[in-house]
Amino acid sequence: MKPSVLVTRAIYADVVDRLSQYFDVDSNQEDLVLDAAALKARLAGKAGVLANAADKIDGAVVAALPQLRAVCNMAVGYNNLDVPALTAAGVVATNTPDVLTETTADFGWALLMATARRVTESEHYLRAGKWKRWSYDMLVGMDVYGSTLGILGMGRIGQALARRAAGFGMNVLYHNRSQLPAETERALNARYVSKAELLAQTDHLLLVLPYSPESHHAIGAAELAAMKPTATLINLARGGIVDDAALAAALRNGQIFAAGLDVFEGEPSVHPDLLTVPNVVLTPHIASASEKTRRAMANLAADNLIAALDAGPKAGHPPSVINPEVMARRR
Length: 331
Ligand code: GLV
Known about the structure:
Strand content: 5-15%
Bound molecules: glyoxylic acid
CATH class of the largest domain: Alpha Beta
CATH topology of the largest domain: Rossmann fold
Oligomer: single chain
Number of domains: 2
Number of strands: 12
Number of helices: 14
Structural class: alpha/beta
CATH architecture of the largest domain: 3-Layer(aba) Sandwich
Helix content: 25-40%
Radius of gyration: 22 Å
Strand order of the largest sheet: 8-7-6-9-10-11-12
Largest sheet: 7 strands, parallel
Order of helices and strands: EHEHEHEHEHHEHEHEHEHEHEHEHH
CATH superfamily of the largest domain: NAD(P)-binding Rossmann-like Domain
């Protein structure tokens, strides 16, 4: 008998077909959002799950599902997973790094440009019929070329953003849990600084650090107050890294110039104050959403699930494991 797996949300039909070669697949192709109780109920008896970043798989879920052996996220971030609980229970956890790095960095650049140069605000202005004549100060923004880029979190995506900055003649500063090797810093033309210096010096601050209890509200009222009034803030990482209420207040009070947000605390809900300030560009968590990349993510998540459940050409060797000690213990 084939092992049973759950695909928690609609994905590409050919990826579901591929999983069906190895598994009895319960696929939520009708794309209902499964709440915690529905997710737990549908996971009963399943050996594995292809999940997305909104599916919370915590210690209580893991404890209720003794047959579960693999949780494979279709996302690079995995703050939806209680990795220590999964590891203790012998459940392999995987994510989808690398395949989305450049697409996500492209989108970071799109948000940065739109925010600094007031692209969405300008479009709203035009569509509302407010454009009657040229004015020297109509919708003036902040320069990107030649400015100082700040990157908080210098992993794969942060480095891809830094590489793009070279074409814009930018001075690149970064802060990270650990400093990069000198040769990587040289290649990226990026300088490691303290978080305080990053906040004080940066013209455009990009957040690309993982969410964890330590990074909760890494940007709150105090950090916003430490930024330049001409600065922009871009959050590409996870909701909860920014205190959205404090950000809305800072935008309203002119404490910073503008913000671009792809992620939100409690998404898909958006803090109501953010919806009423004009100087923020808002997008619905789409940084990795190119056709090619979303396909690559779905296929990598499927490869992980197949291999983690000891099937397919990479049996026992899922390509991107978060807790390799579980696979090692099984061998
Ligand atoms: C998206 O947010 C991801 O983590 O891949």
